[in-house]
């Protein structure tokens, strides 16, 4: 039973652009303090879902609610913080003007910007025009504008693209503090392993449908847990018949570098060494979230 009200609740969402079906019956809930990563290949419907969630599009079928309210209404939109790469800045404004403007639009006093500028390390840049910022600095300004109103839901579109390792770590730390205070986060990303580190749940979208909605570790555990990569003269037929083999990829001719999925690499290696004493370049590794998403969406695109 649901005990707390969902911050974001989408039910039966369908959306098409002419003949193109972008969302084909999507249900999604994000609770207070939860971080949900939205993954999927290009064209999966991620942006459409996010745009409906923030009230910039109206559902053709289904409903979307933010804390029970309609996101197309201004009062509901005030509970949202949005950072989308496609949103441009008015070039004539300074960092301070942009963030204090966001505070005022959210019903706060302009001075509310001071604390968030400090938290994001932007105080020294407050008088600088946005045109004179680096890509990473612009990302931080977007985040400051999204956070200044203490939103109930943060919607972030590829927020760490272009950030270096330290900036990325700082970014997730800032979000962790907000989440501890109850802010929910919906983040679209192609950085699959990053979602594994920061998200409570990963939602895999493909061709407008949700293929999986689960904690990242559960997604990974649905797959064979190891891959063995090896250079071998054994052909595909021989490899596929070996005990415990679940899949083989990369066979391109004699002495190919092949990747074999298995639940039991130890047993597989014993047999491989027996059949091909010339075997070389052996590597065994865990399946990552990237493979889990690729397997679910059935294509290489999702891992890009
Ligand atoms: N304005 C539009 N007009 C027509 N078709 C559109 C429009 N916006 C999106 N689409 C189509 O709807 C589908 C879903 O697109 P959407 O942008 O939601 O996917 P996405 O998962 O965000 O993709 P990406 O990872 O490439 O940003 C795609 O087939 C896309 O071509």
Key terms for this structure?
antibiotic resistance; binds adenosine-5'-triphosphate; disordered C terminus; AAA+_ATPase; 304 residues; ATP-binding; Alpha-Beta Plaits; elongated; 28% strand; nucleotide-binding; 11 helices; ABC transporter ATP-binding protein; four-stranded antiparallel β-sheet; Rossmann fold; single chain; alpha/beta
Shape: elongated
Total helices: the number is: 11
Number of domains: 2
Rg calculated over all Cα atoms:
23 Å
**Unique bound compounds:** adenosine-5'-triphosphate
**SSE-based structural type:** alpha/beta
> What is the share of helical residues?
25-40%
**Which sequence of SSEs, written as H and E, runs from N to C?**
EEEHEHEHHHEHEHEEHEHEEHEH
Briefly say what this structure is.
This protein is of the alpha/beta class. The protein folds into two domains: 8-220, P-loop containing nucleotide triphosphate hydrolases (Rossmann fold); 224-286, 2-Layer Sandwich (Alpha-Beta Plaits), CATH 3.30.70.
Structure description:
With 304 residues, this protein is of the alpha/beta class. It has two domains: 8-220, Rossmann fold, CATH 3.40.50.300; 224-286, Alpha-Beta Plaits, CATH 3.30.70. It contains eleven helices and 13 strands. The protein has helices at 46-53, 74-77, 95-105, 113-119, 135-147, 165-180, 192-198, 216-221, 236-240, 265-275, 289-297, and strands at 8-17, 20-30, 35-39, 61-66, 80-83, 153-157, 184-188, 201-206, 209-214, 226-232, 245-249, 256-262, 280-286. The strands form three sheets. It has a six-stranded mixed beta sheet, with helices on both faces. Strands 11-12-10-13 form a four-stranded antiparallel beta sheet. Residues 300-304 have low confidence and may be disordered.
């Amino acid at each position: 039973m649901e005990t707390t009200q969902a911050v974001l609740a989408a039910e039966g969402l369908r959306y098409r652009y002419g003949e193109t079906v972008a969302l084909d019956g999507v249900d999604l809930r994000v609770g207070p303090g939860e971080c949900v990563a939205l993954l999927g290949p290009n064209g999966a419907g991620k942006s459409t879902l996010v745009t409906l969630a923030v009230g910039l599009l109206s559902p053709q079928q289904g409903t979307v609610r933010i804390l029970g309210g309609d996101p197309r209404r201004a009062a509901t939109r005030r509970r949202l913080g949005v950072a989308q790469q496609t949103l441009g800045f008015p070039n004539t404004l300074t960092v301070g003007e942009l963030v204090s403007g966001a505070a005022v639009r959210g019903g706060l006093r302009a001075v509310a910007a001071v604390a968030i500028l400090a938290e994001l390390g932007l105080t020294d840049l407050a008088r600088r025009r946005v045109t004179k910022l680096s890509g990473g600095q612009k990302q931080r300004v977007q985040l400051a504008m999204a956070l200044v109103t203490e939103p109930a839901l943060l919607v972030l579109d590829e927020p760490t693209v272009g950030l270096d390792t330290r900036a990325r770590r700082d970014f997730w730390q800032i979000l962790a503090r907000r989440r501890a205070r109850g802010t929910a986060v919906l983040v679209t990303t192609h950085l699959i392993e990053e979602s594994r580190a920061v998200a409570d749940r990963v939602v895999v979208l493909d061709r407008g449908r949700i293929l999986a909605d689960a904690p990242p570790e559960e997604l990974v555990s649905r797959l064979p847990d190891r891959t063995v990569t090896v250079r071998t003269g054994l052909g595909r037929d021989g490899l596929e018949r070996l005990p415990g083999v679940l899949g083989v990829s990369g066979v391109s001719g004699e002495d190919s570098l092949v990747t074999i999925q298995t639940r039991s690499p130890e047993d597989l290696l014993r047999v491989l060494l027996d059949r091909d004493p010339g075997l070389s370049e052996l590597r065994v590794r865990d399946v990552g979230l990237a493979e889990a998403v690729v397997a679910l969406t059935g294509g290489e695109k999702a891992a890009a």
